[in-house]
Design brief:
About 0% of the residues lie in helices and about 45% in strands. It is an all-beta fold. The protein folds into two domains: about 40 residues, no CATH class; about 160 residues, Trefoil (Acidic Fibroblast Growth Factor, subunit A) (Trefoil), CATH 2.80.10. The strands form five sheets. The chain has a six-stranded antiparallel β-barrel. About 15% of the residues have low confidence. The protein has no helices and 17 strands.
Length: about 230
């Protein structure tokens, strides 16, 4: 087995991330083609490069507090409530949460992606900054906070750098258990993405921001993220 040079550049969830310098057998091949490598210390590591990104990942960016886009991302995900209802982005831009059968779950309207960010603040928390988005009608559409209760979708180019401590599309993700997470708004502290039933139709839920304390167990604020 031919040795390669690994350069550590960060972490993502339970993985260490390394850049792989091309060896003689793969000179000219982009490092994005090297999907899995193992360090000599036998710790599993993974490279997961976002193909939609442009420009170099390392850049000067923000000199103060803020966020920098990561090479780590999660694509083609279902976003569900604990009642197994699925988040849907309609062509109109409306977000709904509904029951879907096996065939409906394969439609593009329930396919979401998660882009990870690195917190450049000196007071960075252990919570993972992310943007939740989908591709719709040739555009990147992000899930955003409209106000302290309302969630909306908004077309936008994912920023490479966020030169402030909050952004309407940025959420802090914390892991509850396997595939189960909470997403706290970076704009509205202690407000989390949550699923609530419509007043006139309890079978249909909506995605909202819901207030809760950090230690409070609130199941509507627990979001299932699973691979399609």
């Amino acid at each position: 087995m031919e040795a390669v040079t690994l350069t550590f550049f960060g972490t993502c969830e339970d993985f260490f991330l390394f850049e792989v310098l091309p060896s003689p057998v793969c000179q000219g091949a982009p490092t994005s083609l090297l999907q899995c490598v193992s360090a000599t210390c036998n710790i599993p590591v993974r490279e997961n490069f976002a193909r939609h990104q442009t420009g170099p990942w390392r850049n000067k960016g923000c000199e103060g507090d803020g966020f920098r886009i990561s090479k780590c991302y999660q694509s083609n995900c279902w976003i569900q409530s604990k009642e197994q209802k699925f988040l849907i982005l309609h062509n109109t831009g409306t977000l709904d949460v509904q029951d879907l059968n096996a065939e409906q779950r394969q439609q593009s309207e329930c396919r979401f992606n998660i882009q990870y960010y690195q917190n450049t603040s000196r007071d960075a928390t252990k919570k993972r900054p992310v943007i939740l988005y989908a591709f719709k009608n040739g555009q990147t559409v992000a899930v955003c906070c409209h106000d302290e209760h309302t969630i909306c979708s908004q077309p936008m180019d994912l920023p490479n750098n966020i030169c402030e401590t909050k952004h309407k599309a940025l959420f802090y993700r914390t892991k509850v258990s396997t595939n189960l997470y909470m997403f706290e708004s970076s704009v509205y502290t202690s407000r989390f993405l949550a699923f609530e039933p419509l007043d006139n139709n309890p079978c249909i839920h909506k995605l909202v921001l819901r207030n809760k304390s950090e230690d409070e167990v609130d199941e509507p604020c627990q979001v299932i993220v699973s691979q399609m």
